[in-house]
Write a structure and sequence with these properties.
alpha+beta, 17 helices, 24 strands, 8-stranded mixed beta sheet, 7-stranded antiparallel beta sheet
Length: about 525
């Protein structure tokens, strides 16, 4: 029997109708059915996903193999089960609500064979405004290092892995992690790999944000996410010796998984949960947050993690409220140094060094911080954003202020200055916003950019204090788009551009229908 070049493993739980597109994109791969094996593990689906898998297995016998099992509570167990059945030279994991570009597997396998790579990443793009970190996909590279590249920011399992590597080191998903179980698997694969390669020449993988947002990652809660973050950090610490290499990986986890636990939604948690999260974040910071990691963190995350480590819960709440409810904290200038004047700065009771608050190297970025006052659509022509800087001297210190949605710049002007600050207004043309838009739509963060202190500063706009979601429709050619202004989980102003499709309309209608009736 001929060994397939690649086995695609997909863990499936209630992903209809996205599953159909996923499977179709697999069986239509240009690599051909004779070089392909698909192992789909149905993890106790109740929405017809299991029947759809069986339909594809009947239609493509010998290529599509289906395993049914009771629900396990996460993707780890079905992914491990899929590995048990894999026979290909390489293994590729795909989310059952995602899909591949037609040439993806052929290109990935060719690259792995050409470069003798153990792991290959293909450029991933988001669908339905799903955010995908793009730094690692800046250019094609035959050999990248986990410790001196952007690879730690792209640790999902949606990559091509040499199966010999997986079996040699017994790589498997930790089944006690309902969220993030792919990260330990991917991290160890990249550490053990002789060569990791990146392909940036094609849209290989389409990562879909479900319109109903029901998958386990979207709905997981603070304590569950915290437990998984603790597991990932402990895994990295056991795998990599202390030092710059470990810090390079843990920087990602402190920036994302851990810092996200202390974002503005922390304020809405019950006091008891806040205390648990704060205590366990303190323990992680005390043990693993080195000075090297601290100095590379964004200032908001750095200050919140520092106060969690050195202060009490109420100190942490005061810092978060500063960003979420009060506004941009003042900049404290002391000689040649600039500091973010958050609660706790030079508070002897906390005993935090000035380094936690230092923004000297990013003073221009700090000047670009603006609070959104209002957002309004001018029909389907433009988005008008009015924002406020706490600095009355903004016009004197900076030049060329502009507000941009992604790379689309708005016509920006300084409206007024007074003793409390400066107001600017920008008009962002919507048709220019659609230029270069990805087929599945995009999420554009609204940022302020300006020239100051011999450099260019940039910062996302903080969303309005009372965010209200606004929408307009825009036609480009034959495609209709919904353009929405909203606030993301970090409290930043964002513009979501999503194509109107039959699937989207159906999902929206279903969400508005009464449940349980006839």
């Amino acid at each position: 029997m001929t060994v397939p070049d690649v086995t695609v493993v997909t863990a499936v739980y209630n992903t209809m109708p996205y599953l159909t597109r996923c499977l179709t994109s697999l069986v239509e791969q240009t690599i051909g059915l004779d070089r392909l094996e698909i192992v789909a593990v149905d993890d106790g689906s109740t929405d017809g996903s299991g029947r759809e898998l069986d339909r594809f297995a009947r239609k493509y016998p010998g290529t599509v193999k289906v395993v049914h099992q009771p629900n396990s509570g996460g993707p780890a167990a079905p992914s491990n089960r899929g590995l048990e059945h894999a026979t290909g030279r390489y293994v590729f994991f795909v989310g059952s609500d995602d899909h591949l570009g037609p040439e993806a597997l052929e290109r990935l396998v060719a690259a792995a064979d050409r470069w003798d790579s153990d792991v290959v990443l293909g450029r991933t793009v988001g669908v339905n405004s799903r955010y995908i970190h793009q730094a690692i996909f800046a250019t094609t590279a035959s050999d990248v290092d986990l410790f001196d590249s952007a690879l730690p920011w792209s640790l999902s399992n949606t990559k091509l892995f040499r199966r010999e590597l997986i079996e040699k080191y017994g790589l498997r998903y930790p089944e006690d992690m309902p969220v993030g179980s792919d990260q330990p698997f991917t991290i160890e694969a990249c550490v053990r790999a002789r060569r990791v390669s990146v392909l940036a020449d094609y849209d290989y993988y389409y990562a879909v944000r479900r319109l109903n947002a029901r998958n386990i990652t979207y709905r997981s809660r603070h304590l569950e996410r915290l437990r998984c973050a603790q597991s990932i950090v402990a895994f990295v610490a056991d795998l990599i010796e202390p030092g710059q290499r470990r810090d390079a990986v843990l920087l990602r986890h402190f920036t994302w998984e851990i810092a996200k636990l202390l974002e503005n939604d922390f304020l809405g948690l019950d006091r008891g949960i806040q205390e648990q999260v704060a205590a366990r974040v303190r323990a992680l910071a005390e043990r693993y947050l080195t000075d090297e990691i601290r100095d590379r963190l964004p200032v908001e995350s750095r200050v919140r993690l520092g106060v969690a480590r050195h202060g009490e819960l109420d100190d942490l709440l005061a810092v978060i409220r500063q960003d979420a409810e009060v506004g941009i904290p003042p900049a404290v200038v002391d000689g040649d140094h600039w500091y973010a004047g958050y609660p706790g700065f030079r508070d002897a009771r906390l005993g935090m060094s000035d380094r936690w608050f230092d923004i000297t190297d990013t003073a221009a970025d700090w000047m670009a911080r603006l609070d959104t006052v209002s957002v309004a659509f001018e029909g389907n022509r433009a988005l008008v954003v009015t924002a406020r800087s706490p600095r009355p001297d903004l016009s004197r210190l900076v030049r060329n202020v502009r507000v941009c949605a992604g790379e689309t710049a708005g016509a920006t002007s300084v409206v007024s200055s007074d003793a409390d600050g400066t107001t600017v207004r920008a008009r962002i043309p919507l048709r220019e916003l659609l230029a270069g838009m990805a087929p599945g739509g995009e999420l554009r963060i609204v940022r302020a950019r300006l020239d100051a202190f011999g450099g260019t500063g940039e910062a996302p706009l903080r969303g309005p204090a009372r965010p209200t979601r606004q929408r307009t429709l825009l036609l480009r050619g034959a495609q209709l788009y919904v353009v929405t202004s909203t606030t993301n989980h970090k409290g930043q102003l964002v513009i979501a551009v999503v194509p109107v499709t039959a699937r989207r309309l159906t999902a929206r209608l279903r969400s508005r229908l009464p449940r349980g009736g006839n």
